[in-house]
Amino acid sequence: MKGKKIVLGITGGIAAYKSAEIASRLKKSGADVRVVMTRHATEFISPRTFQEITKNPVAVEMFADVVNFDESHISLANFADVILIAPATANFLAKMAHGIADDLLTTTILATPAQVIVSPAMNTVMLENPATQDNLKILKSRGIKIIEPATGKLACGTVGKGRLPEPAEICAYIEKFFDDDKNLNLRGKKILVTAGGTVEPIDPVRYIGNRSSGKMGFELAAASRRHGADVILISAKDLPVIDGVQFVKVESAEEMRVAVLSEYDTADAVIMSAAVSDYRVKNFSAQKIKKDADTLTLELVKNPDILKELGRLKKSQVLIGFAAETENLLEYARKKLDEKNLDMIVANDVTAEGAGFSVDTNIASLIYRGGTVENFPKMSKRDLAEKIVERLAKIFQSGE
Ligand code: PMT
């Protein structure tokens, strides 16, 4: 972990004494460790201990005069590659989950772009309390990593889940995090993601559309960003903006095609999760069509297949497509993988419960160019996006 910058946050629980060994191990492994303590933590262990171990000043008070310590919460927040909170009390987790920033540590966490990892430690009843469980769920959903508490004898004399894992285990977790990060990071990669169902106008009022909400694509853009990529999200749907992602709004298939092609030459990968309308009306009516007749015939013409065109123009870009099927899932998806010259296709049966359009979950099989298939059970679109982006990072790695 040589050169890694770690902010070790210590909150007020009896397990705080173990943090000295955590700081010591991190320091010995070559990391630059800065300790921030809550005021309650100083009731359990002295800041001086950490100052001696890390050879850095220890910060506690938000507004204290900290001699030889020229960093505010913002610079600590920006300094960190990782912020590790060990131990994290129930009270501290609650503050984090609700964005409370009333001391240096909570403020630093709120201001950091770094990965935050928490190692909760408390008695079993507090851990199992629905309030704590809900707070952990909120933190997890925001991408904060949680080190599972260990089971054993607790400070209160009972035996159960809630112990701070041994310092060696916590440090191994941090080391693994840095390893995975090195292997799975997409820094310097430009990734185009498409999302949502395109809209093909019939007249100024009506259009042909489909059920795609854009959720899958937005999660893919967010996951790519979390892995450090430069992301352009080209979408036919508006969902809440994603920090650090360039957003391009389009409506029709043709607009999406133009937007994708204009960035394609310099892109490293494209993930096409958009449901692109296969047809558009041949003659757009500039005026609202009157409903005088009992029947109305619209002539449709085929839209360009954007992904197929990308497959034809492909140089070194990695291309990931989706296959939205209602039958013969793997067979049809494989055909699309070949026809569109893809590196991977995400096959989803859009008729399966909890999969496909609009819902927050999906069930997918990833099919790779070599023919390997990876099947995933039902999971949140966020988790599936994470898996897809991790696989993309591995494809880059194997090609380098
Ligand atoms: O947006 P959500 O509500 O979250 O729903 C997610 C989803 C169901 C839309 C998503 O998981 C999905 O399956 N997206 C692909 C939809 C689709 O158009 O599939 P397809 O099998 O018809 O197309 C195959 C591939 O070619 C897709 O990558 C598609 O983007 C692309 N395509 C299709 C037609 C076309 N004219 N141009 C294309 O580029």
Bound molecules: ligand PMT
Report the sheet with the most strands, covering strand number, pairing sense and barrel closure.
Answer: 8 strands, mixed
Q: Give the spatial strand order of the biggest sheet.
A: 12-11-8-13-16-17-19-20
Mean pLDDT: 94
Please report the distance between the alpha carbons of the first and last residues: 24 Å
- In terms of structural class, how would the helical and strand content be classed? alpha/beta
* Fraction of helical residues: 25-40%
Rg from C-alpha positions?
25 Å
What characteristic shape results from the CA principal axes? elongated
Number of strands: 21
Share of β-strand residues: 15-25%
Count of DSSP H/I helices = 13
Task: Catalogue the unreliable spans.
Answer: 65-70
Per-chain topology:
Elements: E1 5-10, H1 19-28, E2 32-37, H2 47-54, H3 73-79, E3 82-88, H4 90-97, H5 104-111, E4 115-120, H6 124-128, H7 130-141, E5 145-146, E6 150-153, E7 159-163, H8 167-184, E8 190-195, E9 200-201, E10 207-208, H9 215-226, E11 230-235, E12 245-249, H10 253-264, E13 269-272, E14 279-281, E15 300-302, H11 306-313, E16 318-325, H12 329-339, E17 344-349, E18 361-362, E19 364-368, E20 373-375, E21 379-380, H13 381-399
Parallel strand pairs: 1-2, 1-3, 3-4, 4-5, 8-11, 8-13, 11-12, 13-16, 16-17
Antiparallel strand pairs: 6-7, 9-10, 14-15, 17-19, 18-21, 19-20
The chain binds ligand PMT.
Ligand PMT binds at residues 196, 212-217, 253, 272-276, 278, 303, 305-307, 321-324, 336, 348, 350, 356-358.
